[in-house]
Amino acid sequence: MKDTVIEEAMRVRGVRGAAAVGASGKVSASNVDAAELNEFFELLFRVASPSDRYSAVGAVKRIMVRTDEAEVLSLLVAGKEALGVVSEKWRPMAELCADLKALLPGV
Amino acid sequence: MRTILRDLGSVSGVRCGYVVRNGELLASTFTAEQAAALAACQDLARGVAEGLALVDRDWEEVLVDLGEASLMVLSIEEGFTLATLAAADANVDLLRVVMQSSVRQIRTMLALPPPVPTPVASVQPSAPPQPAAAAKPESVPSGARPAASPQQPAPTRPAAAPQQQAAARPAPQQPAAARPGTAPQQPTAARPGAAPPQQPAAARPAAPTQKTPIEQKPAAASRPASGQKPSSAPQKPAVAAQPAAAAKAAAEKPASAPPAQSGRASEDASPLLPKILELLTGSIGPVARVTFKRGVSRWKESHTPTVGNLPSLVEILAADLSSDEERRWFVEEVERLRR
After folding, report:
1. In terms of CB atoms within 10 Å, which end of chain B has fewer, N or C?
2. pTM score, two decimals?
3. How high is the ipTM of this complex?
4. A85: which chain B residues are within 8 Å (Cβ-Cβ)?
5. Who among A44, A47, A57 is closest to B71 (CB)?
6. Which of B201, B162, B215 has the alpha carbon at shortest distance from B281?
């Protein structure tokens, strides 16, 4: 995943931070300061992988978590990589997702 | 619990659901053939919850897009979740509102302590907070309802400008909503904070001859673009200042309310039900049809559907309202219907 994706993600309204998770399952680039959030994205990536793990219900394309800290933590799976995003809670999930999807061809 | 899940299944697009507490499956509407799907959903939800625990985050909602379906999980309390598996094209906002209502029902049913409110827990404005009138003040409690509002046209929300409090019926030329409690001398005061697609009878001016001030405003200025219900919370001192216990007591009024006039107590309540639905719709929007139907079913299971037993129905339905103020308003309005 290109580092520019993170820059582009940061321009999406309501986005506070973004992190790219590589095929290795590790964050390859991030501007999320909180180390625990980068770890969380790595963990979410492991939860979402492999793509056929949840074949009974589909394949995980996206996970969005609304926390109690006025934030939404999202992971958008793009092939064998993923983009983790920390965003403001006020931004509707559907809108945010649509904006982020546009950054990730094939998602 | 299963009834709640069954009712959730009536929401368009919902396939099945389950409730898990501390790893134990309490109820499920997954069939035996869907056991693998249930296991996958539980596995997925557990994985996310465990990850959140590792980073020391409490959570309210998890939404997983599975391509052909979506899994929505709501936290009831720690280790206790309600989840639904819905079609990919299901109305997630509507589902969220209905599930939040179900969570409240479960909490009420199990007498769980109320969750600590978060400032904007269920609000999804489509624009960042702004100082302008259209913005939601940060101090507004989480009572605002997200999905009910977007489906309601802006002009039907006269209470968006809380300072415009006027008597509804006595002065139709000033039809802006009046708040019960702030204007106790107005027995037919309209509920603050929301006006339904069809105005509740109690709030409807006899012959509205002019638009409410809010109707005269551009829609964009009167409410956030997302349709989030503007709240009057910041300017409702009389009600907001009430201790929660007092408000709760008011909400519980039907249980101790005097019975309907002796001649009516044994009357069939059916003619009043549409009016009660109308009141509820005014409060929580179109989703009221779902919660009303569910509430009436529960009521009829345990009570004879008479006017005298309406307080029990009110108690069930009031649990779905998001604030003490709304609950009190609802209780009072139904009480008026009973008389």
Report:
1. C
2. 0.53
3. 0.92
4. none
5. A57
6. B201
